[in-house]
Write a structure and sequence with these properties.
Structural class: alpha/beta
Order of helices and strands: HHHHEHEHEHEHEHEHHEEEHHHH
Helix content: 40-55%
Shape: globular
Distance between the termini: 37 Å
Number of helices: 15
Strand content: 5-15%
Radius of gyration: 21 Å
Number of strands: 9
Strand order of the largest sheet: 3-2-1-4-5-6-7-8-9
Length: 364
């Protein structure tokens, strides 16, 4: 499976009509011929394996330009129309759980990104010492200084019926008391069947206690390279195939009960345990802190929109899968546009300023 996928990608990158050397094209042709012979042999002697490989190949194949356009159209399908008939809150009421004394920027980035993408209201549930700082960043956010209180779970639970999606982890930190409260909040969120996006130190908590989220199909995890490895070790224990990113993301998703996993990296790899999508939207080589918060905040909004639209608008693909791909594409486009203006000095604040134009370019 790995050989076939790599051969496909290597050949697929060659563009015969734009000056790729003829020797490279011949090499791709030879590789394709070898793969075809291997496939035929497997089909003859072990049909079940052949069927599995064919399915895996179709899931893991790199997206062509047409595939990219089809995915962009699926995201456009879930974006709600702006009309005067709506009331405040219909297009998204997003909760962000995170923010401690040390980390106040991350929950702000996630919350303001949700608003910039199109949510109507954003609530931030943070530790008391972080509240005034987060409020000072923007009057747009509704800030609740309850996360480090003894009744934090009850305080957040009171608001859950008013929220469409909860984003858990930005700026959370690893204080044991805070993590204990967040575990209770996640359990309450799951009991109310509210979708949840988990990032940053929320993923640290999941790596310690995977049962909190295992099997909850309305959850999306957004690990980077290090966080993905930590989750893999916690859930699967064995060695990870570092050369087959798509297969690894698929396997981790399945091991967690087919919840949606977004592995952020050079290419963002997304799986719900049944399909794999790769987001290769152009970004930049700049990796400033906070980009993941932009992703988690925008993803929270898109999850709400996708579930509201339903599978009929996503061509029977998982709505969460489409939402995740859309948020990844948007984050990358924001990164590209900001980098064109600011180069090496690009920060997440610069990227957030690009959300409006990036969204219009991709999805309208």
């Amino acid at each position: 499976m790995g050989v076939r996928f790599v051969a496909f990608r290597a050949c697929g990158r060659g563009k015969i009509d734009t000056g790729v050397p003829r020797m490279a094209v011949r090499a791709c042709g030879a590789a394709a011929a070898v793969v075809a012979l291997l496939s035929a042999a497997i089909a003859l002697h072990w049909p079940p394996l052949h069927a599995a490989l064919q399915r895996a190949f179709s899931l893991h194949a790199a997206h062509s330009t047409k595939d990219m356009e089809n995915l962009l159209q699926l995201v456009r399908n879930i974006v709600p129309a702006l009309t005067s008939e709506k009331h405040k809150g219909q297009d998204g009421r997003i909760g962000v759980v995170g923010g401690c004394q040390e980390y106040t920027g991350a929950p702000y980035f996630a919350g303001i990104s949700a608003l910039k993408v199109g949510a109507d209201l954003t609530h931030v549930f943070c530790a008391r010492e972080a509240a005034a700082v987060i409020k000072s960043y923007s009057p747009e956010l509704i800030v609740h200084p309850v996360l480090d209180s003894s009744n934090a779970i009850e305080e957040v639970d009171k608001w859950l019926p008013r929220l469409h999606v909860l984003v858990v982890g930005p700026g959370l930190g690893r204080d044991a008391f805070l993590l204990s409260n967040v575990r209770g909040i996640l359990e309450a969120t799951r009991a109310r069947d509210i979708p949840v996006v988990i990032d940053a130190d929320g993923l640290w908590l999941i790596a310690q206690q995977p049962a909190i989220i295992r099997g909850y199909r309305k959850a999306v995890l957004t690990p980077n390279h290090v966080e993905f490895g930590r989750l893999w070790e916690a859930v699967l224990s064995g060695p990870m195939d570092t050369k087959n990113h798509s297969g690894s993301v698929l396997k981790l998703s399945q091991a967690l009960g087919n919840i949606t996993v977004v592995q952020k990296g050079e290419h963002d790899v997304i799986s719900d345990g049944q399909q794999v999508l790769v987001c290769s939207q152009e970004g930049s080589s700049r990796r400033c802190g906070g980009q993941g918060d932009l992703l988690s905040g925008s993803l929270g909004v898109m999850v709400h929109w996708a579930l509201l639209a339903g599978p009929e608008k996503t061509n029977s693909s998982s709505p969460l899968l489409v939402a995740a791909w859309g948020a990844c594409a948007l984050t990358r486009e924001c990164n590209r546009q900001a980098f064109q203006k600011y180069g090496r000095s690009t920060t997440t604040t610069d990227m957030i300023a690009e959300v409006g134009t990036a969204f219009s370019k991709l999805f309208t």
